[in-house]
Write a structure and sequence with these properties.
With about 450 residues, the chain is an alpha/beta fold. The protein has helices at about 40-45, 85-100, 100-115, 130-140, 160-170, 190-205, 215-225, 230-235, 255-265, 270-275, 285-290, 310-325, 335-345, 385-390, 420-440; strands at about 5-15, 25-30, 35-40, 50-55, 60-65, 65-70, 120-125, 145-150, 180, 180-185, 210-215, 245-250, 265-270, 295, 365-370, 400-405, 405-410, 415. Bound molecules: zinc ion (ZN). The site of zinc ion has 5 residues, from loops.
Length: about 450
């Protein structure tokens, strides 16, 4: 019998097709941008032949990780260990004010390079000059949801107009890898009028909205003072939450807030490292989960993290809840893997397409090298510890190969879609320039 031809075959790997499945030795076939077969190596090699073969022996093969909240920024490691307000006024806000289009391009290249190298295959960005980001996504090969971070600040270049242009020009582009949403920074930096305009436009174009909600105690205090209710209650009162909203943080919530989020089907991005670093607080993840709220995992920007390593984020996310709940069984590793794959995918309305390895789904796949001492010993039969090792011991550097939409973006740690050295050189130069401008007031 003639063998069926596919574009790519990942052979003899240790497959983990979904967060709750058991690992098994298998191969995966990819045709175009889709997974067309998954099975035991002998069956796959009997039935299929491929244009290209990837030997995955001794490597874990799993769905690409999905970052449910981040900003592609350019600076990191500057003005550290300051209280939140000084950190904001010393580095965050001046750098934002000074940010130009060319800085954003360099930032997008650097962030996307870091994501490819750390096994993140899809991300949602809410920040600035998003058309520059879209151009870089086209080249890098990643999958992205892009939204403008609209605020009422006068220096901002992100407005309803630029966000609408982004949606018109970029939604569905790059073979559907680029999705565009509307983005509002937060209920305290956007007026009611701005928020309602964002809602109206998102509904007009039938796309989602990304926003930060209830990140800090200060925010809650401020909204209570201005509107007499919590941020969630306020956003619900003005009907903002009737749109398709994906909210970052949601750290300071009341039981009533959680009920509202559930009722309005708001999805939430958990950003444990950023919340720890900025001493914002601990998000009530277990309460939200108990109420059936869909939760994804995000790194936030590397200015507040300080990297985009989703493996580290899974580990910290679990440990933080264990400490917070004083329960070592809180947020077990499978839950964290769910959050970083299907959970985040559901936050971006993509869980039917990505987040697990299934025939018919998009081929967004990563290979993780398991041969480092920190991932030994590995048990595959009887009790398996693969997920435990991936979540609690692995890190970005263990990712060996990254595939998005059927295209190999990195193989054996060599990035193919971007020129690594050039990206780093450009980022360094642009960051120096941004820092100088920020210091001198833009
Ligand atoms: Zn953020």
């Amino acid at each position: 019998m003639e063998k069926e031809k596919v574009d790519l075959m990942i052979c003899d790997g240790i497959l983990l097709t979904k967060y709750d499945s058991e690992p098994f030795e298998g191969s995966v076939c990819i045709k175009g941008n889709k997974i067309v077969a998954i099975g035991r190596p002998s069956r796959i090699s009997r039935t299929f032949k491929a244009e290209k073969y990837l030997n995955a022996k001794g490597k874990a093969v799993l769905p690409g990780l999905v970052n449910a909240h981040m900003h592609e920024c350019l600076l990191r490691g500057l003005c550290e260990d300051l209280p939140l307000m000084s950190w904001l006024s010393k580095i965050c806000l001046p750098a934002e004010r000074a940010l130009r289009r060319e800085h954003m391009r360099a930032a997008a290249l650097l962030n996307q390079l870091e994501m490819i190298k750390s096994g993140t295959t899809t991300f949602i960005d809410i920040f600035r000059f998003q058309e520059e980001v879209a151009k870089v996504v086209k080249i890098s090969g990643l999958r992205a949801v892009l939204s403008c971070q609209i605020m009422d600040e006068s220096y901002r270049t992100e407005t309803i107009v630029t966000n609408e242009r982004l949606v018109k020009e970029w939604n569905g582009k790059a073979n559907g890898r680029i999705i565009t949403w509307f983005g509002a920074h937060s209920p305290y930096t956007c007026s009611e009028e701005t928020l309602l305009r964002v809602k109206e436009m998102a509904e007009r174009y039938r796309v989602g909205i990304h926003i930060h909600i209830a990140e800090t105690r200060d925010e809650v205090k401020r909204i209570k003072k201005e509107h007499g209710v919590t941020p969630v209650e306020y956003l619900d009162k003005i009907d903002f939450l009737k749109s398709r909203v994906h909210a970052a943080h949601c750290v300071h919530l009341t039981a009533k807030d959680i009920a509202i989020l559930k009722k309005r089907r708001v999805t939430v991005a958990y950003n444990p490292t950023s919340n720890m670093k900025l001493a914002s607080g601990v998000a009530p993840i277990l309460k939200m989960q108990a109420n059936g709220i869909i939760i994804g995992l995000g790194t936030d920007s590397f200015l507040s993290n300080n990297n985009l390593d989703m493996f580290e984020e899974m580990r910290i996310g679990s440990y933080l809840q264990k400490l917070y709940q004083t329960s070592a069984s809180a947020l077990p590793c499978r839950e964290m893997l769910k959050m970083a794959t299907l959970g985040s995918a559901a936050c971006l309305d993509m869980d039917k397409e990505i987040g697990s390895l299934e025939v018919g789904k998009k081929a967004d796949i990563i290979l993780v090298n398991l041969s480092s001492p920190h991932l030994y010993p590995l048990f595959l039969r009887g009790p398996t510890n693969l997920v435990e090792n991936l979540v609690y011991s692995a890190n970005a550097g263990d990712v060996d190969t990254t595939i998005v939409d059927g295209r190999i973006l990195m193989e054996d740690r060599k990035v193919k879609s971007l020129r690594e050295e050039e990206v780093l050189r450009k980022a360094e130069k642009a960051a120096q320039d941004l820092y100088e401008r920020a210091k001198s007031g833009g």
